[in-house]
Amino acid sequence: xxxxxxxxxxxxxxxxxxxxxxxxxxxxxxxxxxxxxxxxxxxxxxxxxxxxxxxxxxxxxxxxxxxxxxxxxxxxxxxxxxxxxxxxxxxxxxxxxxxxxxxxxxxxxxxxxxxxxxxxxxxxxxxxxxxxxxxxxxxxxxxxxxxxxxxxxxxxxxxxxxxxxxxxxxxxxxxxxxxxxxxxxxxxxxxxxxxxxxxxxxxxxxxxxxxxxxxxxxxxxxxxxxxxxxxxxxxxxxxxxxxxxxxxxxxxxxxxxxxxxxxxxxxxxxxxxxxxxxxxxxxxxxxxxxxxxxxxxxxxxxxxxxxxxxxxxxxxxxxxxxxxxxxxxxxxxxxxxxxxxxxxxxxxxxxxxxxxxxxxxxxxxxxxxxxxxxxxxxxxxxxxxxxxxxxxxxxxxxxxxxxxxxxxxxxxxxxxxxxxxxxxxxxxxxxxxxxxxxxxxxxxxxx
Length: 447
Ligand code: HAM
Description:
Elements lengths: L22 E3 L2 E3 L2 H17 L3 E2 L5 E3 H8 L4 H5 L2 E5 L2 E5 L4 H10 L9 E10 L11 E10 L4 H17 L6 E6 L5 H13 L8 H9 L10 H8 L10 H16 L5 E2 L11 E8 L9 E7 L3 H4 L8 E7 H10 L12 E5 L2 H16 L4 E3 L6 H11 L3 E5 L1 H6 L1 E6 L5 E5 L2 H10 L11
Parallel strand pairs: 3-7, 9-10, 14-15, 14-16
Antiparallel strand pairs: 1-2, 4-6, 5-6, 7-8, 8-13, 9-11, 11-12, 12-13, 16-17, 17-18
Helix pairs in contact: 1-5, 5-9, 12-15
The site of histidyl-adenosine monophosphate (HAM) has 26 residues, from β8, β12, β13 and α11.
């Protein structure tokens, strides 16, 4: 190893550490790991109630899967992939999880296990975008894919499930934007009409829109510029290119959502940035997030993806994915109380070597019995240990030295009301002593 000093390493821009305590990185507040676990558990609970089961796929995927699946001309594939070569294999760090889930579904013939597979995932994704608040290079998505059903009821259930997750977390004030992209036939014809319409206006378009005009014209519909929006307002409408069956399907979806009291806005400009969608497309936005990054989640139907990635026949599917970091930003803006780490139920203050040895054995027995126990491991003074017990919010404290060991009894202090009881110094007695001093938990509060 070289002996020359090297500068202190830092995490890569657009990535961040999730620490036990909340932290901030590049003006973004990163929730603590206990809050992540809490939110992930809430998400999994809602998934359970909908009968949606978890799937975990690799972070590494073949580059061609993403290029074919997401679409060769999309921003994700042309600009944002972390891709590399090793030997003669091309790898990509997955930028999204829908194509990988469909790959796994086809690879493992999951259709033979159930006619409809309802799957969810939570995990990291990677996109080489310009990092900013709500937009990162490594971010986390949770998402759902319903594979095997072409029915519009599946579209509705996926959307309602998505909304129920945010509701379960206390975010009920989100805006659902909804559109239909029609079937396979609608988009190419609309694209041609859009390009024909926009070409004479090219001098008034931004540089990026001019580039999109050549590469991926539908993305221009995403523009946030008021001037471009005004031009587009006069242009062709996707809905006019959509076959009547698709329009009827869309009406049925709106009825199904309306019937469940789900509010939505129809947005004829919503096309999404991935190429695999047909029929339904939707996004969930929140005013709690900054304008440009206000999409909490997005999704739609993607019946053609399976064929794009090698299946002999089309496989109907619909799903959504959501950014975990944006969810935390919204929760933070809404001042939602998030779970922090559970406090120790017992802190053992040890005085001397014998007590330390006794505490090692007893704390292990208590931990095996399910009690959260903390013991000093740094040889600190009794006073410093008491301070630490307070700092950690320990629910009860027992002080153990030679005298206590000799007599076999000590005093267990309930930190909430400062009451003390005499306690036998064995794991069983401590366990029941600790349990009797615990606060009563309202079962509703933990649901
Ligand atoms: P997407 O719209 O590209 O869709 O991403 C879904 C969500 O992931 C976004 O709404 C946003 O919350 C979050 N997200 C995306 N990029 C970033 C980033 N760079 N930093 C932070 N958060 C980000 C998909 O990925 C599709 N696979 C959704 C889908 C599932 N469609 C059907 N099934």
